[in-house]
Design a protein that fits this description.
Blueprint: E1 3-4, H1 7-23, E2 30-36, H2 40-56, E3 59-65, H3 71-83, E4 89-92, H4 102-106, H5 120-128, H6 136-147, E5 156-160, H7 167-176, E6 180-184, H8 191-196, E7 200-203, E8 221-224, E9 228-230, E10 233-235, H9 240-243, E11 249-250, H10 257-277
Parallel strand pairs: 1-11, 2-3, 2-4, 5-6, 5-7, 7-8, 8-11
Antiparallel strand pairs: 9-10
Helix pairs in contact: 1-10, 6-7, 6-10
The chain binds NADPH dihydro-nicotinamide-adenine-dinucleotide phosphate.
């Protein structure tokens, strides 16, 4: 049986650490979450963020805006938060409606408050390997690997999925930590051969149990980013029951990357707070 990369326990440790740090602060770190529309999954994710924020003593404001909000009003809302000295971090919950110019909206967020690492400036810093806010899911994956003492330098990391939100930033972050990185996607040929050749396999596709025993080999570390809801149950992109019998280490769903994502966002918020205080 593989070693379990337990994101829940690690999330609880991060929660404790942030809580004790925030207790000693005169002013509390504040996060503004801007939601456009009413996507059910976003409501769930935002609920988790609000709950975590409450637990650690941060202030979280959730602004839910109508799907048909005029662009200039949306920009105004972000600018208000940019200018507010009491606000340390701003996120625009993704996905946002197709009618909204995503790049323009995200790039309105002031880079020093971009705690989800989605602005062009943050992404450019990630490309350049400079210090920046690493997108929360990617940061969660890195912390999960780091805390479990999984070496990245010189290892072959295969990332399945190339989205701007998860796949690409994760591949870049692994490259910045000296892994040799392969990015696979829907048009990749011989996917099984490629995934089998990985030392570290990161899967962010959104297809339940797509990675079966035929895609993995012994001694691998497998990180499952996928979240699929089937009959009200959370299922990963990796067939945990089959794959955990073969590989060396694996993150479960639920209880792996998901909890780490929320905790990582608030680590970024704390970093933003400290930088702004200085
Ligand atoms: P996207 O739909 O934006 O991207 C999916 C990627 O998977 C695309 O690059 C696509 O390739 C690739 N893909 C699709 N089918 C295949 C296939 N058969 N073989 C290889 N690659 C394939 O999803 P996200 O990146 O936003 O999310 C991925 C998963 O991670 C989802 O389940 C999502 O719910 C979850 N997620 C989890 C988070 C967490 O905190 N744990 C946070 C964010 C997301 P192509 O580009 O060629 O179309």
């Amino acid at each position: 049986m593989a070693q379990i990369l337990d994101g829940k326990t690690l999330r609880d440790e991060i929660e404790k650490d942030l809580k004790s740090k925030i207790q000693n602060l005169k002013t509390k770190p504040k996060l503004v979450i801007i939601q456009i529309g009413d996507v059910a999954e976003s409501n769930t994710y935002i609920g988790q963020k609000v709950k975590f924020g409450e637990k650690i003593g941060a202030i979280v404001t959730h602004k839910k805006l109508p799907e048909d909000i005029p662009e200039h009003e949306l920009i105004e809302q972000i600018q208000l938060a940019n200018e507010d000295k009491n606000v340390n971090g701003i996120i625009v919950q993704l996905p946002i409606p197709q009618s909204v110019n995503k790049e323009k909206i995200i790039d309105t967020i002031s880079p020093e408050k971009d705690v989800d690492g989605q602005t062009a400036i943050s992404i450019k810093s990630l490309v350049d390997g400079l210090p920046t806010f690493i997108p929360a899911t990617t940061k969660g994956v890195l912390t999960l690997l780091g805390k479990n003492k999984i070496e990245l330098s010189g290892k072959h990391a295969v990332v399945v999925g190339r989205s701007t939100l998860v796949g690409k930033p994760t591949a870049l972050a692994l490259l910045n930590r000296d892994a040799t990185v392969t990015i696979a996607h829907a048009k990749t040929q011989n996917l099984q051969e490629i995934t089998k050749s990985a030392d570290i396999l990161i899967v962010a596709v959104g297809k339940p149990k797509m990675i079966t025993r035929d895609f993995v080999s012994e001694n691998q570390v497998v990180v499952d980013v996928g979240i699929n809801v089937i009959n009200g149950k959370l299922i990963g992109d990796v067939d945990f029951d089959e794959v955990s019998k073969i590989v060396a280490a694996i993150s479960p769903v639920p209880g792996g990357v998901g909890p780490m994502t929320v905790a990582s966002l608030f680590q970024n918020l704390m970093d933003a707070y400290k930088r702004q205080e200085n």
